[in-house]
Amino acid sequence: MTPGREAIRSKGWWAAQRWLLLRRASQLLVLSLFLSGPWFGLWIAKGNLASSLTFDLLPLSDPFVLLQSLAAGFMPALSGLLGAALVLVAYNLIGGRVFCAWVCPVNAVTDSAAWLRRRLAIKTGRVPDAATRYWLLGAVFGLAALSGSLVWETVNPVHLLQRSLIQGLAGALAGGMTMTLSVLLLVFLYDLLVASRGWCGHLCPMGAFYGLLGPKGLLRVAASQRAACNDCMDCFAVCPEPQVIRPALKQDGQVSPVILDRDCTACGRCIDVCAKNVFNFTHRFDQRSDS
Amino acid sequence: MKPEPTHQQRKEAGALASQARRKFLNRIAAAAGGAGALALGSLFAMPPAAARPAQALRPPGALPEAEFAGACLRCGLCVQACPYGTLRLATPGDGLATGTRVFTARNVPCEMCEDIPCIKACPSSALDHRLTEINNARMGLAVLIDHESCLNFLGLRCDVCYRVCPVIDQAITLEKLHNPRSDRHALLLPTVHADHCTGCGKCEKACVLPTPAIKVLPRPLAQGALPEQYRKGWEEKERHGGSLIGEQVQMPVRGLEDKAPGDTRLNSDWKP
Ligand code: SF4
Ligand code: SF4
Ligand code: SF4
Ligand code: SF4
Ligand code: SF4
Questions:
Q1: CA B119/CA B121 separation, integer angstroms
Q2: Which alpha helices (DSSP H) does B45-112 contain, by range?
Q3: Contact B89 A80 (CB under 8 A)
Q4: Does the N-terminal or the C-terminal CB of chain B have fewer CB atoms within 10 Å?
Q5: Would you say the pTM of this structure is higher than 0.90?
Q6: How far is B99 from chain A (nearest CA, A)?
Q7: What digits encode the pLDDT tens for the residues B74-130?
Q8: Kindly report the CA angle at B140 between B138 and B144, in degrees rounded to 5?
Q9: In sequence order, which ranges of chain B are alpha helices (DSSP H)?
Q10: Taking a contact as any Cβ pair under 8 Å apart, which residues of chain A between 32 and 71 contact chain B?
């Protein structure tokens, strides 16, 4: 049975989709803050996720891009450094991969691929080692240092997509869009046909970077009602990082019901699809549990 | 007491361990190899700095081309800060690192804002924040590239490129030359001076021809360089307050005695 069907029946449609829809809303909101300026002349955030200025006051920069530039041998300006420091502190507090679930525009693409793969019951392909993303992360910085240029940013789907949407429509879009669409299509097809959750879960160096940047964030999902779990496995089916659930749900190597693994993106999809209301959002130090 | 493992058992345990080790190493190798392949793939997607097309100009204060692609964060803040919509992001078709900022003079030139908002907006060192005087910007160099279609070279008085130059009479001057075709007129040749031209592109934009005769090119493309040891005699003379090699004997040019410079018609009484 499709994961989540049972939850919709017992909790109602909204309760079984709530976090998913709120996440999409959050991703769209971030994008629209950037788009309102170029599209409607209503400037809220200038720039893009790589570096931005909100209300002409708040500088925010992506530490992943900034570090690549540093590796390439260039010292950013003060506003860039300050912006990166703010982002660093924020994600360190809240949890690095919260970026993946709540901000990154590519998430909608890989979620769709995962959904379609489940729908079509595709089982083909081969999943790469989970450590591949860390190797790739190293390679990205290594390449930047060797070439003196931000090589990865030529293909990084996250910034490509954002950039094409925000600045591409204003200027010459044809070429930029082709590149963006082909990279996104590759990611989609890879996740659909080759590896389940392959891109975000095993390859994306940016996700890996944010995971390392905020491994002990406060915002967490906990299996507080784990005694009620009836082993339907729906949460494992929808989770972008299924390996993170087991320790908390099955008390495998830990007592705490909180999902502590840094790879958990705090997407809340497990909360949605669980018909037994096992999961809930909480903070890292919440030890309440029914078992 | 635990029995000593037999030779056979030991061998099996050893084989198992080495098998596990091999598997582990294989896994690492696959992960590293895959990551390396992917990273190298991204290298192919990036055009080399040397492939920069001639008509792609960088914003004021931009670092030299080889460095620009490493410093620019591709955020587009400079694009959005420009009140004239001069800048745009490079797309793969441009043959430049995608997402870095360029402008095309013939489309929208740089208006040379006094407060240089594009530099102020830049969160990186891609645009040099020490550049505060726009006249010192060196985005490129105007070159009167086509002497055969420039109207002034044809003897007309177009002068448009000269008139629109924000650094008029310094970056671009009209140099007077005898017009041998009509014999009675002057040619006023638009002449660009690299010491003052900012490369803003206003002259290229304004050129009245369907395809401009004056074009702004990236400086490395537009400029030659004298060899190190060359000295210009007239400059050395001025610096030292006199010729360094003493007075020179001035030899008359046979057949051109008493002629104005540039007038190459032979004297009527000249015989070879
Ligand atoms: S893993 Fe990468 S592509 Fe996926 S959501 Fe995170 S940053 Fe975005
Ligand atoms: S454990 Fe739950 S919140 Fe965490 S990534 Fe998986 S589905 Fe999302
Ligand atoms: S100096 Fe002014 S016109 Fe020129 S690129 Fe910068 S903001 Fe645009
Ligand atoms: S503002 Fe600076 S870092 Fe951003 S795109 Fe322009 S040159 Fe690059
Ligand atoms: S590019 Fe043309 S208009 Fe601009 S400073 Fe140079 S000569 Fe003048």
A1: 5
A2: 65-71, 77-81
A3: no
A4: N
A5: no
A6: 7
A7: 888 888 888 887 777 776 656 666 666 777 777 788 888 888 898 988 999 888 888
A8: 130
A9: 7-44, 65-71, 77-81, 117-121, 160-164, 202-206, 219-222, 233-240
A10: 37-38, 43, 46-48, 50-53, 59, 61-62, 65-66, 69
More confidently predicted of B112 and A154: B112
Same domain, A197 and A71: yes
Q: What long-range pairs does A232-235 form, CB within 8 A, spacing at least 24?
A: A232/A3, A232/A6, A232/A275, A233/A3, A234/A3, A234/A4, A234/A6, A234/A7, A234/A273, A234/A274, A234/A275, A235/A3, A235/A269, A235/A270, A235/A273, A235/A274, A235/A278, A235/A279
Which letter, b or e, does each residue of A111-149 get, where b requires 16 or more Cβ atoms within 10 Å of its Cβ? bebbeebeeeeeeeeeebbbbbbbbbbbbbbebbeebbb
Compute the average pLDDT of residues A184-209. 88
Pairwise CA distance, residues B254 & B259, whole Å: 11
As a whole number of angstroms, the distance between CA A58 and CA A63 comes to 15
Whether the CB-CB separation of B123 and A77 falls below 8 Å is answered with: yes
Which of A65, A99, A104 is the best mutation target for the ligand 1 pocket, counting ligand atoms within 8 Å of the beta carbon and taking the most? A104
The total domain count for chain A is: 2
Q: How far is residue B235's CA from residue B192's CA, in Å, rounded to a whole number?
A: 20
Answer whether residue B48 shows pLDDT above 70. Answer: no
pLDDT band at A4 (very low <50, low <70, confident <90, very high): confident
The answer to whether residue A289 scores a pLDDT higher than 60 is yes
Last residue of a domain, one of A212, A239, A254: A212
State the first-to-last Cα distance of chain A, in angstroms, to the nearest integer: 28
- Same domain flag for A158 and A62: yes
What pLDDT does residue A97 have?
92
Token pair for B241: 């307050």
User: What integer is the mean pLDDT of A176-203?
Assistant: 84
According to the model, what pLDDT value does residue A22 have?
Answer: 93
B32 Cα to chain A: minimum distance (Å)? 6
Reading the block at residue B61, the tokens are: 């204060």
Decide if B49 touches A, using CB distance below 8 A: yes
Are A136 and A86 contained in the same domain? yes
CA–CA gap between residue A155 and residue B46 (Å, rounded): 9
Amino acid at residue number B93: G
Q: Which of B168, B147, B137, B155 is nearest to B214 (CA)?
A: B147
pLDDT digits (tens, 9 = 90+) for A28-46: 999 999 888 878 888 898 8
B chain contacts of residue A201, beta-carbon cutoff 8 Å: none
Q: What is the mean pLDDT of residues B236-254?
A: 80
Residue type, B224: G
Ligand 2 centroid to residue A252 C-alpha, Å? 17
d(CA A198, CA A183): 14
First-residue to last-residue Cα distance in chain B:
125
Using an 8 Å Cβ cutoff, are B70 and B46 in contact?
Answer: no
Phi, psi of A219 (to 5 degrees): -75, 115
What ipTM was estimated for this complex? 0.85
Q: Which residue has the higher pLDDT, B73 or A290?
A: B73
CA–CA distance, B108 with A65 (Å, rounded to integer)? 29
3-state secondary structure of B103: strand
Which domains are seen in chain B, by residue range?
Answer: 46-136 (3.30.70), 141-222 (3.30.70)
